[in-house]
UniProtKB/TrEMBL annotation, chains A, B:
Protein's name according to its UniProt entry: Alcohol dehydrogenase, iron-dependent
Domain called Fe-containing alcohol dehydrogenase-like C-terminal: residue spans: 189-378
Taxon lineage: Bacteria, Pseudomonadati, Pseudomonadota, Gammaproteobacteria, Pasteurellales
Keywords: Oxidoreductase
Species of the source: Haemophilus parainfluenzae HK2019
GO-annotated molecular function: alcohol dehydrogenase (NAD+) activity
Documented EC number(s): 1.1.1.1
Pfam families xrefs: ADH_Fe_C (PF25137), Fe-ADH (PF00465)
Entry's transmembrane regions: none
Alcohol dehydrogenase iron-type/glycerol dehydrogenase GldA domain mapped to chain residues: 9-177
């Protein structure tokens, strides 16, 4: 096994009505002045915002609010909220929403403790300090609720970049499966694709992997497939909703990446260019790129692709595993072809150019040349 | 899924030579005066103690030492070390050894911050405070390196009890597979039994279990079986050693108990009476009690026992899974019958009495009556 350091200090509060305890949790950590960040006004209409805000007031925690975070969250919204947090003297950021909202909260938390522009972090400046981060996660997908990462899009430069820092672990994340039961059918299947993408990146790209880590990845994928099918029939099945959410958390909280050899995130790298340029939902971009990338890449890890086919779908041939995953995406109705995303050849050329630039930044430009990225996209037509 | 709170702040440093960084890790947490606790003099003869101690001196960390911790660690040794820690003004306890040593370190850390007798905690006084805990774990089994528990034996009262507290998570645990490669053949197989025991308790006793949790438990058991067989042939296989160690950690760091309905630790409860009275190795006691308990208990969870047979051994019948586990214990040569432990009828009667008392303390006396415990032991003859 390869050496590793692992520490994940985030406290998870999982269960019905836990969001109503948020004020209590924040009080335990000494929070007194919070910026609440959220996305759509639905969190107000549903009463969720008020349930959480009330729990803050009961603990004497003051707050201001900033709404309107969109999926593929932008640095401009982050900058707006950073200015608000600084003016207010916030000691904490509370996200009520999905992964986009929480990723924004993390960037805001770092930006509020920094004199320069928050985008500097995404260009390489290390995060030295951050406000305390809390969240009620309303959509399971990104795993942001139990990790140290944040992905933000700079809409001016069309760069979708990530930051990572120990300062960005949430203090407390609330996962209430019932709050996730109102997610639309589309976002359920996009989320399924996202969780599977988080699972397969290192699974296929790391040359050495202890089997105990493979088991964990396969557990997450099998759980997502099983529970997605249950939820498409019955969105209110809270056990399935809970397992789906927990698979999302486990897929990217560090545990699936321990003791393995170096690995990449090529599907995410390429998809980030897709959603930066054409603003497609991240999960929809991933379900298009994944089967194509797998076909393109499989010859490099034949044994692992064979294992995937067997463990996930009970099939003997590596290629059949890839087809089965694509067929499953088709079945649950998340896109598998570029044209379903409305990406034409002109846009595609921009995406390829953008991804090739990102590959240079990620130091994988020898593998992910412009030609290679074009070849992968050709398999997604 | 059932509601849960989960937080595990322990930092794991996994890999070769990580023990030589212990001083650096402790310095990061502000440690200045440590009590080093260890068991056998072998940690000195091997040079391990000096490697670790040198790293402390390099960081200006003063230390005193207390050796001689035995397996089934005793409150008398803990009391001795608590007095030393208090006199020295220690701010931290560093364990260099296996689970017994680390469990002692946890009790010492709590006792050094308490005016009364350390055994009070085991009688129910909550731990309010503890010195910082660090460890180099030289035997994988108890999972103590990433959890909040400690099990100590009061040799006067013949009580083997546990405490749990958020204050007892180690700050940093070093897992170096190479340090574990010198574990004797006997302790390897006892450890295998211990990890499997940690895995099956909630697996069989919780009525409701999300499948994602079952997958994780089964991953740990399958990993232990596979890697034990590798290690019996080649104790120096460091990949297998590492996976074995990581399975031990994952089996009892909280992750396998999330979202499930209430559960018990009956095998541990009964075994603790065995090792409290007759001082058998904990894992050896467990490999005797487990197959017997499983036979006695299986009718209460037929579906789960069927699942176990299928997932772990590829067998169709529930009972065959139990026989397969017992046969595997026989194959690796860890005891499966009381007589192999040298426990005669007189001692057994004392053990039954002790376990029945513990059952009252654990509020499971309706299920684990004296007659029930006798019936379980009858299956282990």
């Amino acid at each position: 096994m390869y050496p590793f350091s692992f520490q994940n200090p985030t406290r998870i509060e999982f269960g019905l009505d836990k969001e109503k305890e948020m004020g209590k949790y924040m009080h335990e950590y000494g929070a007194k002045k919070a910026l609440i960040i959220y996305g759509s006004e639905r969190v107000k209409q549903s009463g969720l915002f008020e349930d959480v805000a009330k729990s803050l007031r009961e603990q004497g925690i003051e707050y201001i609010e900033c709404g309107g975070v969109k999926s593929n969250p932008t640095i401009s919204k982050v900058r707006e909220a950073v200015a608000m947090a600084k003016a207010f003297g916030a000691d904490s950021v509370l996200s009520i929403g999905g992964g986009s909202c929480l990723d924004s909260a993390k960037a805001i938390a770092a930006g509020a403790c920094y004199d320069g522009d928050t985008w500097d972090f995404f260009k390489g400046t290390p995060v030295q300090k951050a406000l305390m981060i809390f969240d009620v996660i309303t959509l399971a997908a990104t795993g942001s609720e139990m990790n140290w990462g944040s992905v933000i899009t700079n809409e001016e430069t069309q760069q979708k970049y990530s930051i990572h820092s120990n300062h960005l672990f949430p203090k407390v994340s609330v996962i209430n499966p019932k709050l996730q039961a109102t997610v639309s059918r589309d976002y359920l299947v996009y989320s399924a694709a996202d969780i599977i993408a988080h699972s397969i990146e290192a699974y296929f790209t790391a040359e050495y992997r202890p089997e105990i880590i493979d088991f964990l990845v396969e557990s997450n994928i099998k759980t997502v497939i099983r529970t997605t099918e249950i939820l498409l029939n019955n969105p209110q099945d809270l056990n399935a909703r809970g397992e789906f959410a927990w698979a999302a958390t486990l897929a990217l909280n560090g545990l699936t990446h321990l003791g393995i050899s170096p690995y990449g995130f090529p599907n995410h790298m390429i998809e980030h260019s897709m959603s930066a340029i054409s603003d497609v939902p991240h999960g929809a971009g991933l379900s298009v790129i994944m089967p194509a990338w797998m076909q393109w890449y499989q010859s490099q890890r034949p044994a692992q692709f064979k294992r995937f086919a067997k463990e996930i779908f009970g099939l003997d041939k590596a290629e059949d595993g890839i087809f089965a995953l694509k067929a499953w995406f088709d079945k649950i109705d998340t896109p598998t072809r570029l044209e379903q995303l409305g990406i034409d050849n002109k846009t595609l050329a921009e995406i390829v150019e953008n991804a090739a630039q990102t590959a240079i930044r990620a130091k994988v430009e020898k593998t992910y040349t412009k030609e290679a990225i074009e070849a992968i996209f050709a398999l997604a037509k």
